[in-house]
């Protein structure tokens, strides 16, 4: 049985430690620790044009594809991808060219992640004068984009030279049961879902039904599960964080969070792995080398 993969979703660059000339050395150090941890397989970055959290759009928000190219240099095994590119930000042919170039530069380690465009990003579209159509139209555009992507990656569409080093996996972000998971079944090699164990199990069941309807072996589609990770220092700290989350968000919103001390993390995600997650992606907003090392040690993989 294949080992479960683990990924890091690095989401926040607003801290001054990431600013200006510190960006590259900090990213380089983090990538090296990820690779040396022996537990993390993939670095994922979000696709945003400006910062959406506290601090507003004036806070630091470097472009993610450029960062992934920089991350390819100090690493040799770490997979690299956007979680996920918005189909509204770029023409799909341009996205294929960009990710293919990343794949060549990294020696075959790129993943092409794409989604319809999260509602939270509407403010970014407005700020940059990019159209943000209704959800149904965005999913239609994603469908069209996936057709273009598949054709180009198979050498059947617009020219794409140099070609990817090997098969370049396509991941669709989004788990709407009627349309999004059907797109996954038709076009994708991977999907990304969130939520608690029962939600994950239901999404996988729906995905398998869509695969059967389109004549696809569900074993061909990898399932990634993303969970916001908050590391705590004690049982009391864990209780305080959970209380804070409960006060700020609904039970449904925090159901898929992973909150606990580093040594507790393997047990907290075990249910999702048993439910069928092929890769667990920790969304770790304020990740640092110490936190990454602690999670690696918790899984019994302390690094080189």
Overall radius of gyration: 19 Å
State the low-pLDDT regions, or none.
none
- The best one-word shape is globular
CATH superfamily: Luciferase-like domain
Query: Structural class, from helix and strand content?
Result: alpha/beta
CATH topology: TIM Barrel
What is the subunit arrangement here? single chain
Characteristics:
10 strands; 304 residues; alpha/beta; single chain; globular; eight-stranded parallel β-barrel
Describe the structure.
This protein is α/β, with parallel strands linked by helices and 304 residues long. The chain has one domain (5-298): Luciferase-like domain (TIM Barrel), CATH 3.20.20. Helices cover 42% and strands 15% of the residues. It has an eight-stranded parallel β-barrel, surrounded by six helices. Helix 2 (64-72) links the parallel strand 2 (42-45) and strand 3. The radius of gyration is 19 Å and the shape is globular. The two termini are 24 Å apart. The model has no long low-confidence stretch (mean pLDDT 95).
